[in-house]
Amino acid sequence: HRVTGDIGVTSRSQFEGAAFRFRKQLFGTQGCGYSQLACQTVPTSSRLDFTIGYRFWELGESLSVRERLNSQTAAEAFDITDNFGTRNQFNGTELGFVWQGRRGWWSLDALMRVGIGNVHQTVTIDGSTAITENGATTNHQTGFLAQRTNIGTYDRDEFAIVPELGLTLGYQMTKRVRVTAGYSMIYIGNVVRPGDQVSLDVNPNLLAPELSPFSGALRPEFAFQETDYWIQGLSLGAEFRW
Asked: What is the pTM of this model?
């Protein structure tokens, strides 16, 4: 068939997490130092803490492709949808260090943590095709990229190490008001994402309506495809104490 029409692509990504931690001070110092900016002696302090706790995060994503096509050679219309969804759930122990330094009105907080545990990976693939010919519509439970050879829900568990780094710079504007600016980064080495699960190796004999008797290779095939994932963020804050 020669067809005309439109193709729409919709994607969604959501990340959320939670943690609880116990914190123990390893050492701390207090003293005085000279500030070049203020040209005077200012109080200084620093401390290093060890943290241990539990960490959870979840990354859920989806990719949907919809094709609405009309045949140029026959009275036929095609409405084809392919859906790919992934979910990654991490549960593990978290170990880390937090350093805090103060010098006059300025402060710097640095953290380094690592989560060690299990990531549960889930991939869901489904599709549909509606063919309208001479006013009659026939529905099929396969799409274009989602065929009976790869449609389904697949899951597995993988060992994961998740490092996290963060820096926060603070300035005490007044006795009661403090402002901060920070940067944080989380790296996840093995997640499944929707686009990576799409195979373009499709046997045209599988396209609805499927050729009968069927011939050729059973393609596309499903296989877990992993990638790494970076989360980076900037934060601005203000603190008021009374």
From this structure: 0.86
The mean pLDDT value for 110-116 works out to 98
Domains held by the chain: number: 1
Work out the average pLDDT over 77-85: 97
Within a domain: 184 = no
Q: What CA–CA distance (Å, rounded) separates 148 from 132? A: 21
CA distances from 153 to 4, 210, 219, 223 (A): 32, 22, 17, 12
Provide the pLDDT confidence category of residue 182 given band limits of 50, 70 and 90.
very high
Based on DSSP, count helices (H) and strands (E) in the chain, helices before strands: 0, 8
d(Cα 180, Cα 109) in Å, to the nearest integer? 10
Q: Which residue has the tokens 């990638």?
A: 227
Q: Whose CA is closest to 146, among 61, 68, 217, 64?
A: 64
Residue 22: the pLDDT is 96
- If you count them, how many residues does the chain have? 242
Print the domain residue range for 2.
1-20+55-87+122-156+199-222
Taking residue 147's Cβ as centre, other Cβ atoms within 10 Å add up to: 23
CB 98 within 8 A of CB 52: no
- Beta carbons of 230 and 189 less than 8 angstroms apart: no
